[in-house]
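SEQUENCE WITH STRUCTURE:
===
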Amino acid sequence: MTTNVSESINAVLKGTRNLPITALVQSTYYRLGVLYAERGQQHHASLAYGRIYTDDCMDKIKCKVGKSNIHQVMQFDQNHYSFMVHETVNPREVRPIGHFEVNLQRKWYDCGKFHALHVPCSHVIVACSYTRQNYLVLISDVYKVVNVFNIYKEEFLPIPNEGYWATYEGETLYHNPQMRRNKKGRPNSTRIRTEMDVKEKVPRKCGLCRLTGHTRKHCPNGTASSSQLS
């Protein structure tokens, strides 16, 4: 989930990562300001149409409903709480066809998708349909349009012309010339290395005789190999 958030931010700020620091901050501020205005208008229109959940959430629900039509349900108690759901068709996922426990009272579902996405999975939907319960009440409030609108209703203020800025009286910062990147050669990597980056050193072998201790250019067996080929 953390990776998905960072990739979303990278998509918004694509093309600005190699800019100078001042242009980078300015571009980030302008792009986020435009993004918040567009998303705010989009979700305000959804509220006007009376939509409760976001379009992305409802698209996921439609996909899960289609998968639930090929599941088989077995009831395991008389209170309509505990079920066993069997998949009859390969779900086109990494895992094979299986069976999963669904407990509506404890909100426990074996597949784990509901706990990760907070949206009813196909197993929960088919169990709710079997007992004639509304599975939409199990959708988390974070997918409601009103809550998403409250996020984007905050607006960014336009930056006035520099002539209207107040006089700065704080400290003046200067760059450190020793931290300037050397244009010649390959730049030094600042990546934090882990145990997966540690490689065992394997002695280099000659390209002709496949022995160690020398290279192809200084191979003592080079003359013999050339005579055999001729």
